[in-house]
Specification:
This protein has 106 residues and is mainly alpha-helical. It has helices spanning 3-10, 17-27, 33-39, 63-77, 83-99, and strands spanning 50-51, 54-55. It is elongated. The relative contact order is 0.08.
Length: 106
Amino acid sequence: MSITTWRRVEEGQSVRDVTYARVDEVLGWPLGTSARVIDDPDYTPMASEVVKGARFSKAPLSSDALRQAIQNATIATAPGLTGAQIQELQERAIEELRRQGLLPRD
């Protein structure tokens, strides 16, 4: 990539889509990250998940955090449910995620 093209990217001037793909590649970002930065100036890209063939994974969501998220969403969308119904919903969602291998068993 030429210095002129790079300058255009840094200044937010129009460049070809393939240029943004090259920027993603050079910075080690997943494809499309540059376009997302342009579309959402508040977005902060993270370091690539791929480093020399290794993959990083995010820490799994804790059961307690998931229960809280389900409770908040349920109260916001179905305020007529009882506490017992919300708790049952929490437990069923957690068990389903465990069954699918998306949440570790405690």
